[in-house]
């Protein structure tokens, strides 16, 4: 079976995430998709506002556009969440599957900074959706360069939505309307628990 893996901090999960997953899974005909919230991102300090468990619960409330499984594999592992460890875990779990790792454009452009990135190249097919149309040339160059090292990288069209969790946290802290960018169930969860109040979004 072909299995999609989509990891992220999801602090909070937003429609940019769900549009990317739905578009890539439908375009490539991926029947199984696993969404994996990180415990602690490896390259940045965890942002305040929501605990790992709350981020997992918000991810489970999203309408991803395709059937997904929400995995707590990185929360159970604890510590810094490395893609290498997560892909190794899913290879052990489903040794016959081809793994497709879904990611946004910023992740591709920083790929060589990832933990054990050369080994990662052989562990999955990496699927990237441009966040903006003018990202495409830079992404194509990065993908071509990594293909030369043995990786498999696919650029897949997805509906562009210029939004980030950092931007959303700042808007939520300011009390602004972000309903266009969040699933109603996620927005209700945030409001009910008074998450992201008084943050500066950094």
Order of helices and strands: EHEHEHHEHHEHEHH
Tell me the distance between the termini. 40 Å
Low-confidence stretches: none
| Percentage of residues assigned to helices | 25-40%
Strand order of the largest sheet: 3-2-1-4-5-6
Please give a structural write-up.
The chain has 202 residues and is an alpha/beta fold. The protein is built from nine helices and six strands; from the N terminus they run E-H-E-H-E-H-H-E-H-H-E-H-E-H-H. A six-stranded parallel sheet has the order 3-2-1-4-5-6, with helices on both faces. The longest helix is centred in the first third of the chain and has 14 residues, at 15-28. The protein is globular and about 45 Å long. The termini are far apart.
Keywords:
202 residues, alpha/beta, 9 helices, 40% helix, six-stranded parallel sheet, globular, 15% strand
């Amino acid at each position: 079976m072909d299995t999609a893996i989509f990891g992220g901090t999801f602090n909070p999960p937003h429609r940019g995430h769900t549009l990317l997953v739905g578009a890539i899974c439908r375009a490539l005909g991926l029947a199984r998709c696993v969404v994996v919230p990180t415990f602690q991102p490896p390259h940045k300090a965890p942002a305040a506002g929501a605990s790992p468990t709350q981020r997992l619960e918000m991810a489970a409330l999203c309408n991803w556009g395709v059937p997904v499984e929400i995995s707590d594999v990185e929360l159970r592992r604890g510590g810094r969440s490395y893609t290498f460890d997560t892909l190794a875990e899913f290879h052990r779990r489903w040794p016959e599957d081809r793994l497709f790792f879904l990611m946004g454009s910023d992740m591709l452009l920083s790929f060589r900074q990832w933990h054990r990135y050369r080994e990662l190249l052989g562990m999955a097919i990496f699927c990237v959706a441009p966040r903006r149309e003018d990202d495409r040339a830079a992404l194509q160059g990065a993908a071509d360069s990594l293909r030369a090292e043995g990786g498999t990288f696919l650029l897949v069209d997805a509906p562009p939505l210029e939004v980030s969790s950092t931007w959303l946290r700042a808007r939520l802290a300011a009390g602004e309307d972000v309903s266009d960018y969040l699933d109603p169930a996620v927005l209700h969860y945030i409001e009910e628990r008074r998450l992201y109040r008084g943050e500066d979004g950094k």
